[in-house]
Amino acid sequence: MKIFGVVGWKNSGKTGLIERLVSVFAVRGLSVSTMKHAHHSLDVDHPGRDSHRHRAAGAHQVLVSGGQRWVLMSELHGAPEAPLDALLTQLSPVDLVLIEGWKAAEHPKVECFRAEAGHDLIAPHTPTIRVIAADCDVVADVPVLALDDTCVIADFITAKVGL
């Protein structure tokens, strides 16, 4: 599977860009999966639900399946967070995986940058950033594309990963 990351500071437009990219790639006939790194406690389950009760009882994994989707939850029980490479092996094969977060990982990335967020660029300190998607003029050693020009960003990504 081909992978490409989307990074940036909070409120830089990462999630919106990924949403738009998934739509563009789907229209182009590519299968796409996404991964999101959370820096906070993550819970997709709710107390009182059967699956939550299974987890609370000590299950290492709980799979919940229905007519529209299925979800596999894995509990770490104090173990370290799984590395990105291990998590990627859990995905079904697709043409492209878009990865939000994991700034320090070794895959190629686009950095989202919004002037109003007030943060410095990540790109000068992160050699895996191949392009910046910005809502303003930016001087950088990598190409800079308009943050809202999703098709051009999608073209850049597909060219870089060979799709």
List keywords for this structure.
23% helix; Rossmann fold; 8 strands; 6-stranded parallel sheet; 163 residues; globular; two-stranded antiparallel sheet; alpha/beta; single chain; 4 helices
Write the layout of secondary structure elements.
Blueprint lengths: L1 E6 L6 H14 L4 E5 L13 H7 L4 E5 L4 E5 L9 H5 L7 E5 L8 E5 L15 E6 L9 E3 L3 H12 L2
Parallel strand pairs: 1-5, 1-6, 2-5, 6-7, 7-8
Antiparallel strand pairs: 3-4
Care to describe what's here?
The protein has a 6-stranded parallel beta sheet with strand order 2-5-1-6-7-8, with helices on one face. It has one domain: Rossmann fold (3-Layer(aba) Sandwich). By secondary structure, the protein is an alpha/beta fold. The longest helix is centred in the N-terminal third of the chain and has 14 residues, at 14-27. It starts with a strand and ends with a helix. The radius of gyration is 18 Å and the shape is globular. It has helices at residues 14-27, 50-56, 84-88, 150-161, and strands at 2-7, 32-36, 61-65, 70-74, 96-100, 109-113, 129-134, 144-146. Helix content is 23%, strand content 25%.
